[in-house]
Amino acid sequence: MSKKLAAKASLIQAPPAPATELGTTGERSDTAEARPKTAPGSMALFMASQSAAVKEAEELRGKLKAFDGARPVRMLDPQMVRPSRWANRHEHSYSDQAFGELKADIAAAGMNVQPISVRVVKSEVLNGSTPLSEPTYEVVFGHRRHRACLELGLQVQAMVTDVDDRTLFEAMERENRARKNLSAWEQGVMYRRALDEGLYPSQRRLAEAVGVDVSLVSKSLSLARLPEAVLAAFASPLDIQFRWAQPLAEALQKDPDGVLVRAAKIKQSGQGVLAAQVFSALVAAPGPKVLNGSTPARRLIEGAAGRSAVLARDARGRVSVEFPAGALSESAEGELAAFIKELLVRR
What is the DSSP string of 52-120? Predict the structure, then answer.
């Protein structure tokens, strides 16, 4: 029996060793010899390898913590970025010395070192039917840096974020105050638009949201609501100061016609009048030095037998003649009409 078992055993051949375990001579390599031959050894090797992987993962997590809350920065074509509908910079803001210096800095660096913030414009279409082929972005803050890159033909460095209108408005307002403050008029236009669009229910709620005094919001709004004729009297609306809001509002309330006439005359003069001088002329009490012949005036004309009339000129320069009731007969009125007609022909 034992001879038969021995014969059968001799027929059994062991499988060849894997190529990874054999050297060039066909002998087992050192790595194969290093493999544990027992179950506890294999488990120990497995735990050691897992420990190294866990340690590496922990190190990576530690490095990623430094980027918690960070927003990805991209280089975008400035032509694919549009100003926000809450944009508050007047065109004159892009032609002053400060903007020129900013533009020069960006040109020297070859990019805007400080990224702007943008959000993706969703569901945009062209001509009401054709979807945009590329994503379009809207500036959250950084309109001046975007404009500089656009004029220089440089890509704009931008952080892409997802914000709603109110968050955008508040971020823009804070960024403006942290960098180049808006002018009083620009600030008012921004606040007026937010209220008109229903972004905030009241001036107080708006003031609380952006962290400014409600009186500042009120003054800003007063300037933003000045008539176009008054704004046109200044070389730039950016020159108008906060402290002028109340006097201008009072002047318009007391003598709206006179203020508008004075504003039109200043505009027509075409002279480089300083903003402070324009303000003084607009709010000054009527006087010949300010109005140059448009001062409201009344002149008494005395006739015979105690009869009289009043020649009057209002702030707009309109002239009228007033007679007491019954002072003119029907024929005298005809003579007066004929005389006025003759005057008009002469002019």
Answer: HHHHHHHHHHHHHHTTTT---EEEE-GGGEE--TT----GGGGSSHHHHHHHHHHHHHTS-SS-EEEEE
For helices 245-254 and 214-224, the axis angle rounded to 10 degrees is 50
The 3-state DSSP class for residue 272 equals coil
Give the C-alpha separation, 277 to 266, whole Å: 10
Per-residue pLDDT tens for 62-117? 655 554 555 678 899 999 999 887 776 777 777 778 888 888 999 989 999 889 89
pLDDT (0 to 100) of residue 95: 77
Q: Where in the chain is the domain with CATH 3.90.1530.10?
A: 71-180
Dihedral, CA of residue 197, residue 198, residue 203 and residue 205, to nearest 10: -140
Give the CATH class of 71-180: alpha beta
The CA-atom distances, in angstroms, between 261 and each of 31, 222, 242, 258, 291 are 100, 20, 23, 5, 8
Residue 52 has pLDDT above 90, yes or no: no
> What would the two tokens of residue 38 be?
């027992």
From the list 200, 3, 6, 1, the residue with the least C-alpha distance to 86 is 200
**Looking at residue 28, what DSSP letter applies?**
B
> What six digits make up the tokens of 229?
């004729």
Give the pLDDT score at 290. Answer: 41
Average pLDDT taken over every residue of the chain: 76
Predicted local confidence at residue 53, as pLDDT: 59
